[in-house]
């Protein structure tokens, strides 16, 4: 079988693909921010004195980590309207990404918090700091330094997971590529190009995370 490569549809659709990349980055960044908020809040509740709150966080983490992301995003998009909550595809995708990433962030951040010695916490309390101040001023940054590689790797995976948002027609790179492929029937050319775009996005994110690591999370060298 002879197959002639033809990247003309890809070249013609390049502006749309670049806009799709921006859509992917928008979903990823917003999802990451929400995941961080959920992660930090979940860790605080996970160590709460109130047992129901601890069990609520544990149940949330186990539910999210043991169900497919596709099912989660379908649930938010199709099931919530039955309860009178209707969301557009893009907000739905951001919330789903934030919830999914937040469940993993809780366990990652919690591992970092537990790596901090109790002596530092007790010293903060002895200085008259409240528990919230001890967490923010003493525990959080060293914990983030310890978990930074794991957390950033999870965020790169979260960025790649934005492609699943195409299942609910959220505007991002994969949904744009599906439209171009359906119009041109040039599957190899379209998805080869999209693969390159995802590789570039992932590489740029890893370089950005490496910059922040060197800038904020490395110990000074004498």
UniProtKB/TrEMBL annotation:
| Gene3D superfamilies associated with the record | MetI-like
The membrane-topology field of this record reads: Multi-pass membrane protein
Instruction: Kindly indicate whether the keyword Cell membrane belongs to this entry.
Output: yes
At the top level, the lineage of the source is Bacteria
Q: Which GO terms describe its molecular function?
A: transmembrane transporter activity
Gene Ontology biological process terms from the UniProt entry: amino acid transport
| Subcellular compartments | Cell inner membrane; Cell membrane
Describe the family membership recorded for this protein in Swiss-Prot or TrEMBL: Belongs to the binding-protein-dependent transport system permease family. HisMQ subfamily.
- Protein name (Swiss-Prot/TrEMBL): Glutamate/aspartate import permease protein GltK
Lineage here is: Bacteria, Pseudomonadati, Pseudomonadota, Alphaproteobacteria, Hyphomicrobiales
